[in-house]
Amino acid sequence: MNTPNIPIEEIISKINKTEEILDGSLKNNDFETFSKTLEERFELLKQLEPFRTEITVKNIIENILKKDSERSKSIEKKMRKIKDDQFNVQVSKKAMKKGYLKIEESMSRHKINKSG
């Protein structure tokens, strides 16, 4: 009976490590690592499928769901910030173009006036 517990413990250990990596990558805005780690975790969770009736596995899944809910909220905040930043960049870009065109226009008029 101890033989089946060994793989569960190994899987759980790997899942715990992936959870730490997920938290770290989200904190550091490393979404590439975050995405890859989610895929790895998914594969590990598939391996827990035969043990889904065990209380330990149920508790792990519940904890993952809670953490994922928090992560989702954090990602939404980050996405809103990125969206706002993108908007500000576009506004700044337009302002720079308009400002540059006015400067360029006034410089060309000034040159014409000097030579004329």
Automatic annotation (TrEMBL):
<protein>
    <submittedName>
        <fullName>Uncharacterized protein</fullName>
    </submittedName>
</protein>
<dbReference type="InterPro" id="IPR037285">
    <property type="entry name" value="TM0693-like_sf"/>
</dbReference>
